[in-house]
Amino acid sequence: MTVRVVLADDQPLIRAGLRMVIDTDPGIEVAGEAGTGAEAVQLVRRLRPDVVVMDIRMPAMDGIEATRAVTAESPATRVIMLTTFDEDANVYASLRAGASGFLVKDMALEDILAAVHVVAAGDALLAPGVTRRLIEEFAGRPEPRPRPRELAGVTAREREVLTLAGRGLSNAEIAAHLHISHGTAKAHIASLLAKLGARDRVHLVIAAYDAGLVTPAS
């Protein structure tokens, strides 16, 4: 099936560049473009795309607020934040708003296309190494630290798995660390996603941080 994408960025040149990249992939279609966060929310409401590529910094309604609205109104629509990684302090906040990952504006062509396909398939965009960097860079930013999240219904073993996932380990690495099979590690991740209501693996990282199982230093 063709992945339908909405591009949301207040810079027409950025949107045009992304469209040119996406047009090279017959499996992805640009369903619409928005120049503001509010326009993006309206387009999603009307078009119900599979993925929104959302710039963080836009006038009036920024990408974080728009992402919060999109994920609330259209849970099946996945959001990829568009950012300049070394400058934006809002990446972590955007993930809390429901985004499934991020694109860096100078990413390679094949990485942008792969990211859209990965997120459209329901997976997290962030590779384990990028997840670790993200936590180190943004988890300690001056956003009020919430009270440690309760993990009702999560078993002791699942807490161990959640801690390792929060540190950026893959299923194979978790299996090796805990001396369990890859299938068992995958089953624990699936159970955690269901119990914690997490959209994807990125949001398991956030859950681990909120529960106090992982800190930036770890």
TrEMBL record:
Residues 147-212 form the HTH luxR-type domain. Keywords: DNA-binding, Phosphoprotein, Transcription, Transcription regulation. Coiled coil: none annotated. Residues 4-120 form the Response regulatory domain. Signal peptide: none annotated. The modification 4-aspartylphosphate is found at D55. The keyword Ubl conjugation does not apply. One of its GO terms (molecular function) is DNA binding. One of its GO terms (biological process) is phosphorelay signal transduction system. It comes from the Bacteria. SMART domains: HTH_LUXR (SM00421), REC (SM00448). PANTHER family: TRANSCRIPTIONAL REGULATORY PROTEIN NARL-RELATED, TWO-COMPONENT RESPONSE REGULATOR. This is DNA-binding response regulator.
